[in-house]
Design goal:
about 30% strand
């Protein structure tokens, strides 16, 4: 039995941070970072059956073209993904009354819809990136036993080509869901290798008042290439989603609207339009 200090429940029996019970979620789930983006997705729904919010974690479950879908805001960063993925898995794969894992496990379909900056000049603003692989620069997933799900050859190539300082921890690479990729991919998408940073400023090479450990890291990442796999974009959630998803047995895929191009210095003239187009595209694919 899982102790109450390990799986914390609210007085009403819902999981601690997400404030959800098993009946509140669908098996098809969309992740967004920003809680205000939840309703930008659910406004397209035919009906909304359930709404709750605790802290930055907002959830709405409803129906779109006959498909039951939940939309959940995760907040920013791999640490929040650790909370969301583990609590969602607990909702479907742990009996919350007996506190024991279920014998028959459920696999969720999880699609992240986010915004990101492109690292490559030929992936322009207002385009879409589907993350085929993701590399975690954040070290969160190293708290788990991940060798069975990580792409060690790509990790080694990245460490060598970027002269990565291992005092920051060993990066981890995980592949996204091939099944969801087959369902969602079209020629509108760029296939990507997404970097997941543990912060927004120094970890992504931004310099304000503090010097950073490697001023050339962004340039090195721009030029990384392993068997034609090159880094396409940088954000703060995807690798953590892929890693925990693979370990827990869920299908996970990340889609990003590119609103900035750091190679050219361009920023989208209408980033909200690009995000809205990606939302409609993803909803239609999920409902097919």
């Amino acid at each position: 039995m899982i102790q109450s200090s390990e799986l914390i429940l609210n007085p009403d029996g819902s999981v601690y941070h997400l404030n959800l019970k098993p009946e509140n979620i669908a098996h098809d789930i969309i992740f967004v970072g920003d809680q205000n983006r939840v309703e930008k997705i659910t406004k397209h729904f035919d009906s909304i059956e359930f709404t709750t919010q605790k802290r930055e974690f907002k959830t709405q479950t409803g129906v779109f073209k006959g498909k039951k879908i939940s939309v959940i805001s995760t907040g920013i960063g791999p640490d929040n993904i650790d909370i969301v993925m583990n609590e969602l898995d607990a909702l479907v794969n742990i009996d919350l009354k007996t506190r024991k894992p279920k014998q028959n496990l459920t696999s969720l379909n999880i699609v992240r819809i986010g915004t990101s900056g492109s690292l490559q000049a030929d992936i322009p603003v207002d385009s879409f990136v589907m993350s085929e692989y993701a590399i975690g620069l954040d070290n969160m997933l190293r708290s788990y036993l991940i060798d069975e799900v990580s792409e060690i050859d790509i990790e080694n190539a990245f460490i060598e080509q970027t002269t990565w300082d291992l005092r920051k921890g060993r990066p981890y690479v995980v592949k996204g869901s091939e099944r969801l990729a087959d369902k969602i991919y079209s020629e509108k998408m760029h296939k990507g290798f997404t970097g997941t940073a543990g912060g927004f400023y120094g970890p992504q090479g931004r310099v304000l008042r503090l010097e950073i450990q490697d001023k050339e890291l962004n340039h090195k990442m721009d030029n990384f290439n392993y068997k034609d796999i090159r880094m396409t974009n940088l954000e703060m959630e995807t690798a953590a989603i892929y890693g925990l998803g693979k370990l827990l047995g869920h299908e996970c895929l990340s889609l990003n609207a590119i609103i900035a191009n750091r190679a050219t210095g361009n920023f989208s003239e209408d980033p909200y339009k690009a995000v809205d187009e990606l939302i409609v595209y993803a909803l239609d694919k999920l409902a097919e």
